[in-house]
C-alpha cells in the first residue's frame, strides 16, 4: 500500500514533460499579475522559494526579479525537467531541491519571497504548510499563493473534488477562498492583494496530462452527463467535457 507522498511521486515523475508543455501551466493572467507584484515589491537580491515548482513555470516567471530562486518539489522527475528548462533559458538564479510543503527543509526567516502555484491542492496538511511558509519568511517578506479554488456551494464542490480525484489520485482538495483566508490569517500573514480568474480545462488535454485509462475518463464523462443543472452551470460544463473553474491569487506580507 502506498503513502500519499509515494502517490504524488508516481503521478508526477513520469508526467514532467506534459507539465512543461501544458498551456494551462505555461501561461495565464496569474503569471503576469505575479510578475507585476514581485517586480514592484521584492528587492532584486531577494532569496526566493517556489513550493511545488513542478516543471518550473512560476520559477521561470519570477526568477528574473530575484537574486536566487529555490525550486522545491517532492518529485525528482519534475525537478529534473525544471532544472533542464531553467538551464536552457539561461536562468542561473534557479536551483532545485527535493522537499515538501508540510515540512520545509530550511531555517527560520530564510526567504524574502515564498511562492507557490497550482500545487497546494495536493498538500495533505494545509495548516502545517501555511505555518511553514510563515516560518521560513523573513519579517517583512512576501508570500504569493496561487491555486485552483474549491466552490462555496457544497453540491458543486463535492462534484468538483470527485472528478478531480478520479482524474488524479494525488488530488487532495481545492480549497475555497474562505478556507485559504482563514488559514493564511491564522498563520499571521497579512493579505495585500487578491485576484481571481476563470481557468478553462480542456477535457482531452486535462485527462491526457495524467494519462488516465479510457474507462476512468468515461466515468468522469458519465458523472458530468448526469450532473444537475446547478453543477453544470457553476462549472460551465461543455458538450465535450471541458469545464471552467476559478484560480485565486493571494499576495501577502509577514509583519516586520
Ligand atoms: C501542477 S504541478 C505544479 C505546477 C507549477 N508550480 C507551475 O507553475 O507550473 C503540482 C506539483 O505539486 C507537487 N506537490 C505535490 N504535493 C506536494 C507537497 N506536499 N509539497 C510540495 N509540492 C507538492 C507535485 O509533485 C507537482 O510537481
Structural summary, described in words:
The structure is a single chain. The model has no long low-confidence stretch (mean pLDDT 96). It is globular, with a radius of gyration of 18 Å. The protein has a 7-stranded mixed sheet with strand order 3-2-1-4-5-7-6. The chain has 12 helices and 7 strands. It is α/β, with parallel strands linked by helices. The protein is 43% helix and 23% strand. Bound molecules: S-adenosylmethionine (SAM). S-adenosylmethionine is lined by residues 8, 12, 19, 25, 51-55, 57-58, 73-75, 78, 100-102, 117-119, 122-123.
Q: Name the average pLDDT.
A: 96
Q: Please give the radius of gyration in angstroms.
A: 18 Å
Which percent bin holds the helix content?
A: 40-55%
Q: What overall geometry do the principal axes of the alpha carbons give?
A: globular
Sum up the structure in keywords.
256 residues; alpha/beta; seven-stranded mixed sheet; 43% helix; globular; binds S-adenosylmethionine
Task: Describe the secondary structure blueprint for this structure.
Blueprint: H1 4-12, H2 16-21, H3 23-26, H4 29-41, E1 47-51, H5 57-62, E2 68-73, H6 76-88, E3 94-98, E4 111-117, H7 126-136, E5 137-148, H8 154-167, H9 177-186, E6 190-201, H10 203-209, H11 214-225, H12 229-234, E7 243-253
Parallel strand pairs: 1-2, 1-4, 2-3, 4-5
Antiparallel strand pairs: 5-7, 6-7
Helix pairs in contact: 8-11
Short recap of the structure:
The chain has 256 residues and is α/β, with parallel strands linked by helices. The chain is built from twelve helices and seven strands. The protein has helices at 4-12, 16-21, 23-26, 29-41, 57-62, 76-88, 126-136, 154-167, 177-186, 203-209, 214-225, 229-234; strands at 47-51, 68-73, 94-98, 111-117, 137-148, 190-201, 243-253.
Amino acid at each position: 500500500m502506498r503513502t500519499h507522498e509515494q502517490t504524488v511521486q508516481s503521478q508526477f515523475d513520469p508526467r514532467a514533460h506534459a507539465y512543461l508543455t501544458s498551456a494551462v501551466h505555461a501561461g495565464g493572467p496569474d503569471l503576469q499579475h505575479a510578475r507585476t507584484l514581485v517586480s514592484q515589491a521584492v528587492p532584486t537580491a531577494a532569496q526566493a522559494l517556489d513550493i511545488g515548482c513542478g516543471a518550473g513555470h512560476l520559477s521561470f516567471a519570477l526568477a528574473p526579479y530575484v537574486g536566487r530562486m529555490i525550486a522545491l518539489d517532492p518529485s525528482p522527475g519534475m525537478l529534473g525537467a525544471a532544472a533542464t528548462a531553467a538551464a536552457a533559458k539561461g536562468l542561473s538564479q534557479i536551483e532545485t531541491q527535493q522537499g515538501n510543503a508540510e515540512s520545509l527543509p530550511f531555517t527560520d526567516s530564510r526567504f524574502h519571497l515564498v511562492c507557490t502555484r497550482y500545487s497546494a491542492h495536493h498538500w495533505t496538511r494545509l495548516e502545517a504548510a501555511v505555518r511553514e511558509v510563515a516560518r521560513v519568511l523573513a519579517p517583512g517578506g512576501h508570500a504569493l499563493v496561487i491555486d485552483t479554488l474549491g466552490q462555496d456551494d457544497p453540491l458543486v464542490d463535492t462534484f468538483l473534488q470527485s472528478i478531480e480525484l478520479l482524474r488524479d489520485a494525488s488530488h487532495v482538495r481545492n480549497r475555497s477562498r474562505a478556507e485559504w483566508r482563514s488559514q493564511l490569517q491564522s498563520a499571521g500573514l497579512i493579505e495585500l492583494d487578491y485576484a481571481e480568474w476563470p481557468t478553462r480545462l480542456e477535457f482531452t488535454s486535462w485527462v491526457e496530462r495524467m494519462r488516465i485509462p479510457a474507462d476512468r475518463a468515461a466515468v468522469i464523462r458519465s458523472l458530468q452527463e448526469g450532473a444537475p443543472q446547478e453543477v453544470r452551470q457553476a462549472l460551465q460544463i461543455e458538450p465535450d467535457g471541458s469545464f471552467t473553474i476559478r484560480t485565486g491569487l493571494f499576495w501577502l506580507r509577514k509583519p516586520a
